[in-house]
Amino acid sequence: MAFFLEALLGGLMAGMLYSLVALGFVLIYKASGVFNFAQGAMVLFAALAMARFSEWIPQWLGLESKLLGNLIAFAIAAACMFALAWLIERLVLRHLVNQEGVTLLMATLGITYFLDGLGQTIFGSDIYKIDVGMPKDPIFLLEGMFEGGVLVNLEDVYAACVAALLVIVLSLFFQKTGTGRALRAVADDHQAAQSIGIPLNRIWVIVWFVAGITALVAGIIWGSKMGVQFSLTTVALRALPVIILGGLTSVPGAIIGGLIIGVGEKLSEVYLGPYVGGGIEIWFAYVLALVFLLFRPQGLFGEKIIDRV
Fold it and tell me: What are the structural domain ranges in the chain?
């Protein structure tokens, strides 16, 4: 039972991190109706900015406090993501209002390659370390209930708590604020939103900035675990089954989908892996996503699209 709980908790924590990355896709889609292929590049760019500024700031300012240096680095990295959002709206999205979805999709592909090159040109292409003070030592829980207790990675616990807090804040933002409702209106119809006074340009800057902050938090967490390197862009690929499962238009769906994928990967690797030769954790999520595409393409919580002719 203790071993099962270890696998279950590990899956839930990994699922929260998947949800965090998937939220970036959902946010952009809800505000522009386009699938944002640049989300992985945004995670890499934000993580590179955080890693490098956390190195440079203490040297530039002569700081001895690592916490203060990290806070300043986070603020500067967040400012970079705002500047990036503003530039994307000014140079790309403003000229593509009411264009076909495939046009916007190709634009995000261009943004992906641009960010990949820009980030490594400015910040370098080595493997960098992000140290935000999260403890990395494992701990044992429920020792009184199970012999030997349940082994849990404390860093994963902290990361899952941060991801859960951000998910809650974003859910409230979309459901309870006027800006959140305006974002949903823009996604439904650009022209109709403009006709009732919703400032389309400002809304796009806001949503890309929020997606950028989400990418920054995800980049910090994943960078703290694995180091900041080019392969960090592939984290976005791990989030694709999450949004297929939960629904591309649903913030709660990204959460539930991430938890299901995370738990499914861990349990399948532990209990089914010995029978299929291992490696099931790598492809389990994509097989599950394929099943959903066949029988419920809108996902668990996605909106079913009905075209009337």
Answer: 23-229
